[in-house]
Design a protein that fits this description.
mainly alpha; Cytochrome Bc1 Complex, Chain D, domain 2; 5 helices; 0% strand; binds heme C
Amino acid sequence: MQFLKLSFLVAVLSTTLIVIGQDESKETVQDRLQPFGNICMQGEDCGTVAPITVSVSRSGVEVYNAHCFACHATGVSEAPLVGAEEWQTRLDEKGAETLLANTKTGFNVVMPPMGTCINCTDTELQAAIDYLIYGE
Ligand code: HEC
């Protein structure tokens, strides 16, 4: 009888310890899985935290000066000049999307793909096109 009581006690105690042990390890693992810091990227809902801007977009005039200037400031191969009236005609006839698409793929052999700005984003190319069309 004494032996039975003792083994019952041991059984209860060890079960309790196992349950407590599991709870602890669960919390510890959850703690360890928490990210060290939270980064809120641009475009995400960041609450009151300001988003991190991953890359700074170059302005239209910056892209133009670095890549488009050589032809569109000189009119070589009849490249339309900055602010030329001809731009409005192209815009009206083709639409902004086609002008961007033609800038990306290149146009009529004489206009090189991406206007030579190989790492330009669509936003940067569009800004450069806007600069070409409207000037400053
Ligand atoms: C090597 C010379 C050259 C460079 C560099 C160049 N262009 Fe051009 N681009 C041209 C020429 C020439 C045309 C006229 C093509 C035609 O209409 O036959 C043209 C036409 C265009 C057009 C009109 C396309 C259409 O569908 O009518 C756009 C928009 C344009 N360029 C944007 C750019 C941008 C933006 C850059 C710089 C990122 C750039 N170009 C760099 C030569 C160049």
